[in-house]
Amino acid sequence: MGKADLLIYGCAIVAMNGKNFIENGAIVVKNGVIASIGKSTSVENIRAEKKINAKGKVALPGLINCHTHVPMTLFRGLVEDRPLDSWLKETIWPLETKLKPEDVYAGALLGCLEMIRSGTTCFADMYFHEDMVAKAVEKSGLRGILAEGIIESGNKALGERMFERSIDFAKNFRGHANGRVGVMVGPHAAYSCSPSLLIKVGVAASQLKVGIHLHLAESNTMFKKLGKKRGPTEVESLAKAGFLEGHVLAAHCINLSMNDMRILSERGVNVVYVPVANMKLGLGVAKIVDLLRFGVNVSLGTDGAASNNVLDMFEAMKIGSLLQKIFYKNPTVLPAYDVLKMGTIDGAEALSLEKNVGSLEKGKKADIVLVDLSKPHLKPLHNIYSSLVYAARGSDVDTVIVDGKILMEKGQVTTLDEQSVMEKAETTAFDLVCR
Amino acid sequence: MGKADLLIYGCAIVAMNGKNFIENGAIVVKNGVIASIGKSTSVENIRAEKKINAKGKVALPGLINCHTHVPMTLFRGLVEDRPLDSWLKETIWPLETKLKPEDVYAGALLGCLEMIRSGTTCFADMYFHEDMVAKAVEKSGLRGILAEGIIESGNKALGERMFERSIDFAKNFRGHANGRVGVMVGPHAAYSCSPSLLIKVGVAASQLKVGIHLHLAESNTMFKKLGKKRGPTEVESLAKAGFLEGHVLAAHCINLSMNDMRILSERGVNVVYVPVANMKLGLGVAKIVDLLRFGVNVSLGTDGAASNNVLDMFEAMKIGSLLQKIFYKNPTVLPAYDVLKMGTIDGAEALSLEKNVGSLEKGKKADIVLVDLSKPHLKPLHNIYSSLVYAARGSDVDTVIVDGKILMEKGQVTTLDEQSVMEKAETTAFDLVCR
Fold first, then answer.
1. What domain range is B166 assigned to?
2. Which of A325, A379, A390 sits opposite B426 (nearest CB)?
3. Looking at the structure, do residues B27 and B57 belong to the same domain, yes or no?
4. Nearest C-alpha of chain A: how many angstroms from B179?
5. What are the chain B neighbours of A110 within 8 Å (beta carbons)?
6. Contact, A9 vs A26, CB < 8 A?
7. In this model, does residue A183 exceed pLDDT 90?
8. A322 vs B contacts (CB less than 8 Å)
9. CB spacing of B326 vs A394 below 8 angstroms
10. Whether B283 and A329 lie within 8 Å, measured CB to CB
11. B383 and A77 in contact by Cβ < 8 A?
12. B319 and B339, same structural domain?
């Protein structure tokens, strides 16, 4: 092997291809790809442009946040302790109508910065002016599966316009930023898009061969307001319309019947579990343990910062596990390893990226996170999975690598000017609220 | 006013005596006490031994963790995803029989270090060899209300011995470490101590004028195994025995009837809400919203690291609020300010320390925490309370002061050698498990 681009050595490795754990490991990266991974023996013979001595750290696959609205960092903490309905209609949606592309860019950069700092290397996003999120992905060095959102809300012309924009975005940004941008289409939800629009979205997605990212069964109230109290469930109506045939990424999935779960399993729908936002808005608990029994692929997301209020996937993993334990009154469900799987390889599968990322394996893209284990709250280290899920926080992330490129090293972000990103976002947010 | 010991200026202040918020404030400390607090005007005229420019930070009262077993950091991550009963009986209790005083000291120091790092300045602890925890309090500079635990478990002689030790500890360590150590007696729970022992504890506590720290209504299973399925509830039996007359600090309080809540309210029992550990062990949700309606004083705790797995009160505040919202399916309950109150002034009241700590006021002890707001996940700052509760983490704590003494400044712990505390605790834990 010729000279490598990057050698990481001396670290523990949690590869997430099975429960393989290497205590003293090394990873060689070449052309953005993991060229070799294994024990840290005779690393002194490996030639590399850059070497990272990662003693006291653990390498794991970059975390994958499968449901967020990154630019909503602008609204973090703005409306608190309020129900979803009034939260959306009285504050969030009115503010969103005032959003300019440059606002979205400022918020997206702040979100990308926060994600880098907390060990997320890939995220699935749905928002407006999504081209600005693509720009932030390009600038920050992260990987993103992006969708321009579609909200009809009873206004057909609006729905049509947003549909066109969503399709255009998907056509124009596929493979953007050296392939780090992937695309989906983003119908907001069954309560904000009409059945006919949803059918149209489904057909277009199938023609374009892209996935669909939507909110599903998040709020019974919102869906029932449509007068469907006695009719089919949200899942049943979507299934009947042929909407669930392609690759679907369905966030929340709280209000599901057993039949709904069966349908999601049969159609291979990818569920995104969003524990923190679901708790914060008091919406209900997604029955993840049952979904897993039905064989559904479940990934994990934070939602936007306006309803979480952070984009920290470590927190989402811990709270996600805890919420299932308390809901089922059973401490054995969703153990640490399983939820770490949700945050990595199962997330990759939900985004059709499982061949490229989600685990540390030879030939996969080098999306790697180093977590510093030399912290009081991570000592003693009896069990690496429980340390990572129940004790680690986003702030324990030391180094972040995407496509073999270092985005953060020893807590220093390399791709973004942290101070100016924070200032710009704060100014933008304050201006937006006063507009 | 003569020369002060410490001046902190240029920071926001969240004083927690009502919703007073100072945007650009200053705090003067003299002889361990807050000599003045207010706007940061003409601070250049204030003479002080030490000045801290705290621009970009917010000062708040040190957080108060009202229920923990600090030395259990040794067991962090050791037994995971297991029910309380087998968790205690198969792993924790057998290991605890092997504990030597020096093990407890090593674990306690690690816990104190973790608490300093995450902004806790005062904690209520119950464990064995509690004199070692007092020693760790003395060394670390923290404040602690400590109780030697009493577990009878059907063995009368054992119960008697532990009772004597608990009483001796309370007699000998009251006011230890320049008054930073306060004492209680610590009967473990109604399922692990006989009614006659509990009555004896109640009488002794009353004579000594100390509070009682116990686990209450944590597990229906454990209590019902005593054959009390149809008899009085745990609270009713304790009340009947006259046990709830004095100052009682009751952790968990999950399984309460409305009548139990009325009793707790009438007797002025202080409840400790322990959301993270309750979720992790799948035990149930304490009905905090109802308890507050009954006028019960509710404080907040983390429990030991073996069932949490961290001592981070910021996390406990966030999860504590979220858990009530999801339990009551109402996002408006337990808003940010209220849960911050639980973590500060209500915690002080639970420990009878409300005249000394829990809020930043002239004449109170200078137990102050500075949180660094210049972080991506804390931007923009729309609302300080929601930032502190829903977005901040323990790792955002920059500076910690207890009794006017700096325990950590700009992330550097001054009272403990961090590396050696971590190493010693890890070696001890590994040795203990193999013993």
1. 63-350
2. A379
3. yes
4. 26
5. 376, 379
6. yes
7. yes
8. 276, 279-280, 319
9. no
10. yes
11. yes
12. yes
Distance between CA atoms of A25 and A14, rounded to whole angstroms? Answer: 10
Q: What is the mean pLDDT of residues A389-416?
A: 98
Please indicate, yes or no, whether residues A306 and A327 belong to a single structural domain of this protein. yes
Residue B131 has pLDDT above 70, yes or no: yes
* A111 and A128 co-located in one domain: yes
Give tens-digit pLDDT for B236-264: 999 998 999 999 999 999 999 999 999 99
A341 occurs within a structural domain: yes
Task: Report yes or no: B333 and B320 within 8 Å, Cβ to Cβ.
Answer: no
Residues A73 and A51 in one domain: no
Work out the average pLDDT over A420-428. Answer: 98
**Domain-embedded: residue B427:** no
Looking at the whole model, is its pTM more than 0.95? yes
Closest in B83, B322, B421 to A331, CB measured: B83
What is the structure's pLDDT at B82? 82
Residues B186-226 have pLDDT tens digits of: 999 998 999 999 999 999 999 999 999 999 998 876 656 55
Number of domains in chain A: 2
Decide if A376 and B276 are in contact by the 8 Å CB cutoff: no
Considering only CB atoms, which chain A residues are within 8 Å of B323?
Answer: 279, 326
Q: Kindly state whether residue A54 falls inside one of the protein's structural domains.
A: yes
pLDDT digits (tens, 9 = 90+) for A339-358: 999 999 999 999 999 999 99
Instruction: Report chain A residues whose CB lies below 8 A from the CB of B387.
Output: 76-77, 309
Single out the residue in B302, B325, B350 at which a domain terminates. B350
Q: Count residue pairs from A and B with Cβ separation < 8 A.
A: 213
- Which amino acid is it at B34? I
Residue B278 lies in a domain: yes
Domain boundary among the residues A299, A325, A350 is at: A350
Chain A residues near residue B391 by CB distance under 8 angstroms: 76-77, 305, 309-310
Contact B403, B366 (CB under 8 A): yes
Do A55 and A8 fall within a single domain?
yes
**What's the DSSP call for residue A62?**
P
Considering only CB atoms, which chain B residues are within 8 Å of A311? 377
Could you report the predicted ipTM of this complex, rounded to two decimals? 0.97
Residue B77 in this model has a pLDDT that exceeds 90: yes
Question: Given an 8 Å threshold on Cβ–Cβ distance, is A381 in contact with B77?
Answer: yes
Is B383's CB within 8 Å of A80's CB? yes
B34 and B146 co-located in one domain? no
DSSP output for A77-89: TTS-S--HHHIII
Q: Do B377 and A383 touch (CB under 8 A)?
A: no
Closest-CA residue of B relative to A420 is B376
Interface test with B, best of A309, A314, A332 (most B CBs within 10 A): A309
- Is residue A223 within 8 A of residue A254, CB to CB? The reply is no
For the stretch B25-39, pLDDT in tens is 999 999 999 999 999
CATH number at residue B122: 3.20.20.140
CATH of the domain at A56: 2.30.40.10
Check whether A127 has a pLDDT greater than 60: yes
A261 shares a domain with A218: yes
Chain B residue whose CA is closest to A76 = B380
> ω into residue A380 within 30 of 0, thus cis?
yes
Which residues of B are less than 8 Å from A329 in CB distance? 282-284
